[in-house]
Amino acid sequence: MTRATDTELLFEAGVLTAEGEDVSLTDAFASAVDDYEEAFTDCSDDRTRAVRERIDGETLVEAFVELGAVDPRSVAELCALSDRLDTTAEDAWLALLPVLRLFRPDPVPGHGAPAQAIPVAADCLPALTRVYSPALVYVWLDDCPPCESLSARLESTFETPRGVSLFAVYGPRDRAFLDEEYSVTAGPALLFMRDGTIDARLYGDQKGSVLRTELERLS
Fold first, then answer.
1. CA 139, 133, 126, 40 torsion-angle sign
2. How many CB atoms are closer than 10 A to CB 15?
3. Residue 126: left (phi > 0), alpha (psi -120 to 50), or beta?
4. Among 7, 112, 125, 176, which residue is least crowded by beta carbons within 10 Å?
5. How far apart are CA 151 and CA 147, in angstroms?
6. Dihedral (C-alpha) 98, 104, 108, 110: value to the nearest 10 degrees?
7. Checking DSSP bridges between strand 135-140 and strand 22-25, what pairing results, if any?
8. pTM strictly above 0.85
9. pLDDT tens track, the chain, 219 positions
10. β 165-170/135-140 pair status
11. Please, are residues 193 and 136 in contact by the beta-carbon 8 Å criterion?
12. Across the strands, what pairs with 24?
């Protein structure tokens, strides 16, 4: 799905609202997410039960439970979204979930990310890249001309749907985790991932032809 299509469906479902050019969660949906998050506070069993009630497949369930352990709001968003959408087509409605991260009250930095990317905290990547596989992770820095060039090239590349989820991580914020988990110590970096495992990695600015080749191989 494209970001535009995702957004349209979320408007239709009463998840998003707009006032002029400003888009935000509806009060009702934001309140539902807050209620679920509060209900799951300090109760991992309830959080796990909620995931199992809404999605199928043990591998997917385990990944969401892992994600909920480091990011409880993700499970609250999962529950609130499932209340508003037809969940019979699991792949379709779960694909909408990452978009909600753009409207969190305390979003992670995303000012250097391509427009199509979902900015995330690095400690969410192990689970997210298992749920949304295959995936491309873009790690960027401030005051970094190669990062700016690569971000623009990724934007251009992803104007055509690639069948690959695109996540962005602000390197300086998560330096220790990126080093420990993925041995990433510089940027810009691209991690081409399948089922949570790095399939290929590239450092520095890249030509569009290289990006397309790697994405085609990944997808």
1. positive
2. 25
3. alpha
4. 176
5. 6
6. 70
7. unpaired
8. yes
9. 445 566 788 999 999 999 988 999 999 999 999 999 999 887 788 889 999 999 988 989 999 999 999 999 999 999 999 999 877 766 678 889 999 999 998 889 999 999 999 999 999 999 999 999 999 999 999 999 999 999 999 999 999 888 999 999 999 999 999 999 999 999 999 999 999 999 999 999 999 999 999 999 998
10. parallel
11. yes
12. 17
Amino acid 3: pLDDT: 53
CA distance 5 to 92: 11
**Cβ–Cβ under 8 Å, residues 33 and 77:** yes
Place of tokens 């039960």: 49
Q: Which two tokens stand for residue 205?
A: 């600015």
Domains along the sequence of the chain with CATH: 3-100 (no CATH), 118-218 (3.40.30.10)
Residue type at position 117: A
Q: Which residues contact 116 (CB under 8 A, 6 or more apart)?
A: 2, 3, 154, 155, 158, 159, 166
Q: How many alpha carbons lie under 13 Å from residue 42 in its C-beta half-sphere?
A: 0
